[in-house]
UniProtKB/TrEMBL annotation:
NCBIfam families: PRK00015.1-3 (NF000595). Its main location: cytoplasm. It comes from Microbacterium sorbitolivorans. This is Ribonuclease. A divalent metal cation binds at D25, E26, D126.
Length: 222
């Protein structure tokens, strides 16, 4: 079965009411090391009346080799894209949903810094948990946020955000690899591969790990 091609049906419907639609998706939620990253992509009626870029899919359905090319073509298609990041320390301090809220707020703020009136947009957030509204209210004011289950698969604007975030975070983890070769971040991107877990057992956690997560070897009681 071929991967599902995302559509613009929902975006076109919403653009009857809003001047912009912003799609958001996260990467790195389940990783043991590295930041969480949220991509935010924005489109308007003119973009939505066109065609979805060739090869655009949920980033998990695009091979690592093809992602940069698809991301580049997608970035040229949308009006704009911004990324927000939350550090491992912020994951430890706020929990994963709180950190995702920070990253998502920073991504939307990035679009605002590009000149987009984000307060006039409807925000489509992949998944079933709205981690954006409460955090964003303090910095950006109230936003119209709607969760979309399987949005990264089915909705083109969320797929655009997904692939931008995935390419950027993967590149960061490759850049962090030198000096931490035992953890194999160039291959596992901070996720819980066997090599990564073995390295944690042998060498412990680094400053790039989420210290509050139960990933370190158990300490002896005596």
């Amino acid at each position: 079965m071929s991967p599902v091609t995302p559509t613009l049906d929902l975006e076109r419907h919403l653009l009857d009411e809003f001047p912009f639609v912003i799609g958001l998706d996260e990467v790195g939620r389940g990783a043991l090391a590295g930041p969480v990253t949220v991509g935010a992509s924005i489109l308007d009626r003119a973009v939505a009346d066109g065609e979805v870029p060739e090869g655009l899919r949920d980033s998990k359905l695009v091979t690592e080799k093809r992602r940069p090319d698809v991301a580049e073509r997608t970035a040229a298609w949308v009006l704009g894209t911004a990324l927000g990041w939350a550090t491992p320390g912020e994951v430890d301090e706020r929990g994963i949903l709180g950190a995702l809220g920070l990253a998502a707020t920073r991504a939307v703020a990035g679009l605002r810094e590009q000149g987009f009136a984000v307060e006039r947009a409807v925000h489509l957030l992949d998944g079933d948990r709205d981690y954006l509204s409460r955090v964003a209210r303090e910095e950006l004011g109230p936003l119209d946020v709607r969760t979309v289950v399987k949005g990264d698969r089915d909705r083109a604007v969320i797929s655009a955000a997904s692939i931008a975030a995935k390419v950027a975070r993967d590149a960061l983890m490759v850049d962090l690899h030198p000096g931490f070769e035992a953890y194999a971040w160039d291959r596992n991107k901070g996720y819980a591969s066997a090599a990564h877990r073995s390295a944690i057992e042998a060498h412990g956690l680094t400053a790039h790990h989420r210290q509050s997560w139960a990933i370190a070897p158990a300490q002896p009681l005596f």
